[in-house]
Amino acid sequence: MPDHELPASVRVALWGTAVLRGRLQPEELPARALPDIDECSGLVEQVRLWAQLGERALLVALPRPGDVQGMPHSSPDLVAAATAAEECVFVPGVGGALVPEIAAYGPEGDQGWAVTWTAYVADPFPVHRVEALDLGATELMLRTGLAELTDELASAGAPPFGEAAERGASRARAARDRGAAWGLPDGLPPRAVRVVSLAGTALFLADAGLATVPSSLDASTASRRSLLLRQLQTQAARALADATNAAAVHLAFRS
């Protein structure tokens, strides 16, 4: 997958909201939100349609198997697709969602990345649920969870994330810092941006840590490590979706 700490749907939700507010042309959305993607289909057309229908905000959900918190009410097809992708974007007014499928193409050593966005029917989503979020509590809970995880794994002699995860996070930060294309839209609340950054890093590291198990660990320690990383993964995904949606609603209705 491309090196970026933020899932594609998080970036599309924020930049897509900028499109819906008329601050950006729909055709500019892929380049702003997905500079690490070479081919993008199904996104611009749907966001343009939502803009024509009067939508003002694009929200995100980051479901995991057994945890579909934050998803709009919808068909089993959308739930299954979004859970498999572990992400989707949706509009709260008229309802409707997009789920990305990211795939590599081309020969080894010269690969590109393509994303196809598939549209699904979904019910409208009450914006007041987003407006009621307490990002201060979300940030505190996430920081506490990170500290507890690191301490518990360190005491058990298990590296929390592993060298591969740390290298991936470093590459993602370097790519993000190379230019404004990796940034987020202007006008977002500082706390929301801070939580997006923290939760995005935590989710990236948890995902990467779960993808590799250090060979030096015994079965019991490896199992405990996986359990703790999955707890962090769930917590980080919820925090990231909440902070992104709070930022999108602010951009849509208050800036």
UniProtKB/TrEMBL annotation:
It comes from the Bacteria. This is Uncharacterized protein. It comes from Ornithinimicrobium tianjinense. The lineage of its organism: Bacteria, Bacillati, Actinomycetota, Actinomycetes, Micrococcales.
